[in-house]
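step: validate -> pass
step: tokenize input -> pass
step: predict -> running
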Amino acid sequence: MTDRQNSGREEKIVQNEVAVAMRVSWTSLIANMLLSAFKLITGLIGHSAAMVSDAVHSASDVFSTIIVMIGIHIAHKAPDSDHPYGHDRLECVAAVVLSAVLAVTGCLIGWSGMERIAQGNDESIAIPTLLPLVAALVSIVVKEGMYWYTHAAARSIHSEALMADAWHHRSDSLSSIGSLVGIVAARMGFPIFDPIAGIIISVFIIKAAYDIFSESLNKMVDKSCDCETIENMKRAVLSDDDVIVLDELKTRQFGSKCYVDIEIGADGSIPLSAAHAIAQSVHDRIENDFQNVKHCMVHVNPVDVKALMAEMHCRE
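step: predict -> pass
step: emit ->
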């Protein structure tokens, strides 16, 4: 495959990834704006602190989706003289910002719940109406659906920022479940459970923020790919009949993509052009079979085939 063909292929992949990410993000943005407004109104009218907290969480999703859109747009910019390897890591930066937004949101919701508990007893806490109960059920269905929709898109284009946004949807779904439990308990004569539900919600949100931050940080410090992917790459390299031995295979994640460095052994008596053809074959196989590989570098080490055969014969 020529450099021009590689460039055209990469450009088409990038365009497709951006198109998918933007479509999902716009859907999330509109859904979150409508849902947060709906939950806030029902929470205020229906006297539910848990639902108001849930509405704040949904509103933070609007901000997080905007961050995702900006992060993905910048991350997919073409390489330039100052950034010859591209801007992919900026997608991880967007995910880190999202984790910070989630953590702050969780802390605020937890603090609000503790304040309400400290300020009064069961009798002073208003009992929620049925309206917030309906809002919680609607939110659970919508946000769980958004989680699976965004999660599938994130996996298809290997987007860390989009995956973080998917978990933001899931945390909102969990917070709505907490709201539902709190509202039901409050209506059964235990109004203290409404603010308690808000505190439990905050724990889920902070946990999601920590997970997103940890995963993003790993991808910013050249963490290797998972073991299964590495083993599949090794099998792909050794499937080439001209590769005598695989001396080394190293991977490092670069945002939502990864770089691969390979050292193979080939017959040392063949011409340089033949050795280059073997390296090119391995290079193309890795980049074509593994869509999240941004670039594969292959180095060929000469192998003395006669000496190797003699050594194997002696061992037998």
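step: describe -> The chain has a mean pLDDT of 80.
step: cleanup -> pass
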